[in-house]
């Protein structure tokens, strides 16, 4: 698969892949663009095409020569029958391409020692006038090249063929992918991801398992009855009537239609062995996670806007809170104001927990009525420009903290403000070290409030979660990166201490059943911020006086 064509930097001069699709300048795409949606995408609040190219170059450097990275997107998921969920793209594919249409994938192939020679291949749904009547416009194969920088682009139905060519290629020594390419061990019975053997049926499991990608380029979302994942397409040497050397080796592979009855085509990837030419298959997520861990100035700008939008939505939620309001009404207020400011909606299912419901960390039923005298804990965030915000605030339903509530709240707030100050490169700290410090400080605070020593064992019940996680395109971003990683500029984290007092006679009645968490999104401080951390969610009030002023209508 080694070729001489350069990667993203020279993609504009790469030859067009055959598409058979209409060509028209200025066509609408299946996602907002700055020139078509300036009201949503301000120039200073988006990731440029050049930055996506730099990300792919960084990945090409990471995988090294004679290697390829396979990154599938997602297809639509279905709730029931023909009713689909709102589409959300694979964030790894979004990070590398910015492409936000269903049923796609890409391959980044680094054949030489010069990573700038890498090839960026996209596989997308072709633009199709018949389908666009149902589903709206698509970028198509031409758009994948001209607007997303692909060296070459192909219909999504060719994606699996490209994977099989990698299997047959002697030029690729390492393959990075998180697809189930080695789901079975050598000599074992053929099994699908569900665990059922498929040797009797003679079927071959899809290499795109669990992505929900559908490869039929002509089926419309609203009328397609088949929500299954893609078929195994073998031996396709021509795309829309035009041969391409990229698929010459794939054409030599046996076809499932020509296999003897009862026999299953055995792809070495899915039997757990090396590929046909001894290529080593390695996980990809950890490599991309290390790239995603360090945010660029443009990413920080987008995340600042996500935090700003979320903070302002919290202000409106506080103003709307009163006894008799329901949790789901408060959730609706949040979502309305997120969307009205340009967010795509919630970045995750929100927690709106009144009273004792706050003792359940992931309470998402959000159906109860808010009662006079209780607190309400809200953990919510908007998604803006493909980046998440994650904010938690706790406030009194009637607009005024009781003396006991205020004591507990300010104990948590003191700890949170201190830990945020430690989120700097100069502090030479880690998230795990911050957790240790948080637990110790909360232990001191609650011991002082209760007038008795609180053991660390008891603290595990009063404060049962970690103080922080990485934040970015996913709410719990870069999951393979250890919390023992030293903080440095470019990282974005959450800081979210809390106290959750059980309804138990071991605690004063005025504290029982109270759950308090305060969470902000923080960009780690470094040289460009004069050493200080930057709170991205500062627009959400958290001082007692500010919360009460907002709820009283003073501000």
Automatic annotation (TrEMBL):
Q: Does the keyword Chloroplast apply?
A: no
Region spans: Disordered: 1-38, 186-207, 255-277
**Where is the sequence biased in composition, kind Low complexity?**
1-19, 186-203
Q: Which Pfam families match?
A: AMP_N (PF05195), Peptidase_M24 (PF00557)
Query: Do you know which InterPro entries this protein is assigned to?
Result: Aminopep_P_N (IPR007865), Creatin/AminoP/Spt16_N (IPR029149), Creatinase/aminopeptidase-like (IPR036005), Pept_M24 (IPR000994), X-Pro_dipept-like (IPR052433)
- Which keywords, in A-to-Z order, does the entry hold? Aminopeptidase, Hydrolase, Manganese, Metal-binding, Protease
The cofactors it requires, by name, are:
Mn(2+)
Give an example GO molecular function: aminopeptidase activity
Compositionally biased tracts (Polar residues): 264-277
Q: Which ranges carry the Aminopeptidase P N-terminal domain?
A: 47-180
* EC number of the protein: 3.4.11.26
Specify the superkingdom: Eukaryota
Q: Does the keyword Cell division apply?
A: no
Q: What family is it from? A: Belongs to the peptidase M24B family.
Q: Return the protein name.
A: Aminopeptidase
Biological source species: Polyrhizophydium stewartii
């Amino acid at each position: 698969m080694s070729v001489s064509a350069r990667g993203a930097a020279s993609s504009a001069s790469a030859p067009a892949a055959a598409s058979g699709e209409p060509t028209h300048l200025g066509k609408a795409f299946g996602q907002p663009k700055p020139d078509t949606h300036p009201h949503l995408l301000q120039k200073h609040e988006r990731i440029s095409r050049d930055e996506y190219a730099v990300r792919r170059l960084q990945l090409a450097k990471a995988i090294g020569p004679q290697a390829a990275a396979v990154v599938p997107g997602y297809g639509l998921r279905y709730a029931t029958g023909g009713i689909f969920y709102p589409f959300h793209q694979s964030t790894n594919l979004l990070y590398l391409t910015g492409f936000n249409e269903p049923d796609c994938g890409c391959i980044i192939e680094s054949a030489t020692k010069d990573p700038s020679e890498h090839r960026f291949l996209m596989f997308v749904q072709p633009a199709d006038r018949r389908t666009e009547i149902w589903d709206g416009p698509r970028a198509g194969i031409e758009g994948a090249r001209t607007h997303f920088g692909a060296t070459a682009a192909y219909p999504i139905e060719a994606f699996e063929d490209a994977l099989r060519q990698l299997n047959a290629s002697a030029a690729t020594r390492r393959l990075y992918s998180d697809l189930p390419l080695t789901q079975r061990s050598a000599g074992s019975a053929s099994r699908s991801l569900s665990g059922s053997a498929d040797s009797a049926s003679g079927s071959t499991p899809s290499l795109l398992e669990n992505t929900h990608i559908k490869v039929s380029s002509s089926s419309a979302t609203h009328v397609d009855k088949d929500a299954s994942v893609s078929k195994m397409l073998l031996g396709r040497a021509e795309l829309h009537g035009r041969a391409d050397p990229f698929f010459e080796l794939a054409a030599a592979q046996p076809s499932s239609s020509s296999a003897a009855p009862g026999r299953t085509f055995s792809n070495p990837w899915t039997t757990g062995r090396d590929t046909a030419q001894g290529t080593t298959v390695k996980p990809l997520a950890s490599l991309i996670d290390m790239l995603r861990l360090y945010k660029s100035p443009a990413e920080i700008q987008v995340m600042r806007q996500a935090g700003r939008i979320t903070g302002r939505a919290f202000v409106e939620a506080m103003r709307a809170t009163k006894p008799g309001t329901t949790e789901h009404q408060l959730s609706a207020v949040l979502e309305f104001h997120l969307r009205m400011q340009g967010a795509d909606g919630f970045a995750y299912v929100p927690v709106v927990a009144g009273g004792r419901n706050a003792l359940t960390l992931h309470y998402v039923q959000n159906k109860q009525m808010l009662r006079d005298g209780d607190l309400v804990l809200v953990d919510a965030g908007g998604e803006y420009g493909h980046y998440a915000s994650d904010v938690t605030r706790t406030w009194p339903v009637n607009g005024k903290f009781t003396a006991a509530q205020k004591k507990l709240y300010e104990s948590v707030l003191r700890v949170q403000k201190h830990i945020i100050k430690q989120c700097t490169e100069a502090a030479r700290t880690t998230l795990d070290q911050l957790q240790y410090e948080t637990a110790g400080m909360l232990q001191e605070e609650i011991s002082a409030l209760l007038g008795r020593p609180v053991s660390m064992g008891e603290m595990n019940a009063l404060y049962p979660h970690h103080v922080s996680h990485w934040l970015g395109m996913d709410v719990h971003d870069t999951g393979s990166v250890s919390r023992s990683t030293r903080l440095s500029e470019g990282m974005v984290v959450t800081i979210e201490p809390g106290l959750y007092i059980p309804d138990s006679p071991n605690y004063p009645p005025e504290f029982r059943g109270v759950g308090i968490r305060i969470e902000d999104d923080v960009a780690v401080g470094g040289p460009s911020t004069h050493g200080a951390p930057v709170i991205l969610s500062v627009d959400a009030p958290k001082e007692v006086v500010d919360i009460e002023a907002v709820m009283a209508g003073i501000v």
